[in-house]
Automatic annotation (TrEMBL):
This is Nitrogen fixation negative regulator NifL. PANTHER family: DIGUANYLATE CYCLASE DGCT-RELATED, SLL0267 PROTEIN. Residues 23-69 form the PAS domain. Residues 94-148 form the PAC domain. It comes from Kluyvera intermedia (Enterobacter intermedius). Pfam families: PAS. The gene is nifL. InterPro entries: DGC-Regulatory_Protein (IPR052163), HATPase_C_sf (IPR036890), N_fixation_neg-reg_NifL (IPR014285), PAC (IPR001610), PAS (IPR000014), PAS-assoc_C (IPR000700), PAS-like_dom_sf (IPR035965), PAS_fold (IPR013767). One of its GO terms (biological process) is signal transduction. It comes from the Bacteria. SUPFAM superfamilies: ATPase domain of HSP90 chaperone/DNA topoisomerase II/histidine kinase, PYP-like sensor domain (PAS domain). NCBIfam families: nifL_nitrog, sensory_box.
Length: 495
């Protein structure tokens, strides 16, 4: 009978018996040469046989082991309950598998994975115990090292304030930390990467990008950066290939505070530039008024000189006229320039956004300030900050006058559209027109609502070669219309 026929026709017990008959020394050779430690004991656990692997593992020779109780390997480090469970199982003629901490001949300890099988004769009587054990100390140490590493990595990841997430080639999350889970919870349980439109933007995020996202009803700014990770296949069928599609490491940092600080800094600088522009316009307006007032007596002196005749020189009259002319020239030279920045084209929507940000709190969080444009693509031309200052001056005037009308809830609306090469901006409110008439007072330059705002607006609009119109609304209130040329050709070139 061939070996293949024996496999097909025989039970395992019969197969072992047939092999032992045909090859008497086969099983002893196999046991002797086996790399696993094998021992055979009597029912009282006295060692009757141990193979060379057992001797190498324990450090004992065969002569030292024979007739010794298996307790010779006990280290007193294994809990008593383990041995109790072991013997309860074996006494029921059932095999036992478990781990024991054994002691070698030199006193060193090792962790053994032990399989003990009762050997029962044909009469059902226990004759021997067959034990096989492997030293798993190294694999256990490696396993614990891996577990400690995993625990430490998880602890580090979960204590990092930034959100860390790893996605596969389908952009599915395969690893994330506590910060990322918190972000997802703030998104109402939705995947944060989905809210950030990660799949579409992924190619742009390797260089880092700051993206807005709504979390718990508030806009947060998140810095998103990606790095590719090499992939290792977890499928056993790819053991010899060891290739997998790369994964992506995504780090998300909440930079809302920094973004808000940067934005507030920008708005503060813009506010300072607007204040400077308003101050220069006020100085220029005051000097222009002084020049107009001074021109009158100087013109009278000039007329008196002409009436006196060229032959009848009046020294005092001539001196007064010359000093007046010199004073006019000095005042003219003192007029500040309003060209604080270069003229150019710029989108109108960001300008209105800046205006709303500057007056966000003063208009009840922006609820009473409505902005509308005929087209989202409208542009303006000129000095952006100066035009923004014009709008700011009118809003300051509106807020100041509305404060004196406690029975009136302020409503202000801005509307913009392009008309034949001109940008027209309408500012309408429900403050009566009578309150905007100019009435000079000593604090008109620094107190809003005194009429000086309109004068400064006129100065700035005129500098842009624009036009201004002030009308009463039929339903009550005021409408200020500002028109600015959109092209340099309309302005006649730089001023």
């Amino acid at each position: 009978m061939t070996f293949n026929m024996m496999l097909e026709t025989s039970a395992p017990q019969e197969l072992a018996g047939n092999l032992s008959l045909q090859h008497p020394g086969l099983f002893s050779t196999m046991v002797e040469q086996a790399p696993i430690a094998i021992s055979l004991t009597d029912p009282d656990a006295r060692i009757l046989y141990a193979n060379p692997a057992f001797c190498r593992q324990t450090g004992y020779s065969l002569a030292e082991l024979l007739n010794q109780n298996h307790r010779i390997l006990a280290s007193q480090q294994t809990p008593r309950s383990i041995y109790q469970e072991l013997w309860q199982t074996l006494l029921q003629h059932m095999p036992w598998r478990g781990q024991l901490i054994n002691r070698r001949r030199d006193g060193s300890l090792y962790l053994a994975e032990v399989d003990i099988t009762p050997v029962i004769n044909k009469h059902g009587e226990l004759e021997h115990y067959l034990a096989m054990q492997r030293d798993i100390s190294a694999s256990y140490a490696l396993e614990q090292r891996l577990r400690n590493h995993t625990t430490m990595s998880e602890a580090v990841l979960n204590n990092i304030p930034a959100a860390v997430v790893v996605v596969n080639e389908q952009d599915q999350v395969v690893l994330d930390n506590l910060a990322y889970k918190t972000f997802c919870a703030d998104c109402g349980g939705k995947e944060l990467l989905t809210e950030l439109d990660f799949s579409r933007r992924k190619s742009d995020l390797y260089a880092g990008q700051i993206l807005p996202v709504v979390l718990r009803g508030a806009v947060r700014w998140l810095s998103v950066t990606c790095w590719p990770l090499p992939g290792v296949s977890e499928e056993a069928s790819r053991y010899f290939i060891d290739t997998a599609l790369p994964r992506t490491l995504v780090v998300i940092t909440d930079c809302t505070q920094q973004q808000q600080q940067a934005e507030q800094g920008r708005l503060d600088r813009l506010k300072q530039e607007m204040t400077t522009g308003k101050l220069l316009a006020a100085i220029r307006e005051s000097l222009d008024a002084a020049l107009v007032q001074l021109n009158c007596p100087i013109n009278m002196l000039a007329a008196a000189r002409r009436l006196n005749g060229e032959d009848n020189h009046n020294v005092a009259l001539d001196a007064a006229w010359r000093e007046g002319e010199e004073a006019l020239a000095r005042l003219q030279r003192c007029r500040p320039s309003l060209d604080l920045e270069e003229c150019g084209l710029w989108p109108l929507q960001p300008l209105f956004d800046d205006l709303r940000a500057l007056y966000h709190t003063r208009f009840n969080n922006g609820e009473n300030l409505h902005v509308e444009m005929a087209s989202p693509h409208l542009t303006g031309f000129g000095q952006r900050t100066q035009i923004l200052a014009c709008l700011s001056l009118w809003l300051d005037r509106t807020l100041a006058l509305a404060a004196a009308l406690p029975d009136r809830a302020l409503h202000t609306q801005l509307y913009a559209r392009e008309e034949d090469g001109w940008l027209s901006i309408w500012l309408t409110d429900n403050v009566p027109l009578i309150h905007v008439r100019y009435a000079y007072s000593p604090d008109a330059l620094n107190a809003p609502g005194k009429g000086m705002e309109l004068r400064l607006i006129q100065t700035l609009v005129a500098h842009h070669r624009g036009a201004i119109e002030l009308t009463t609304r039929p339903e009550g209130g005021t409408c200020l219309t500002l028109r600015f040329p959109l092209f340099l050709s309309l302005t006649g070139g730089p001023r």
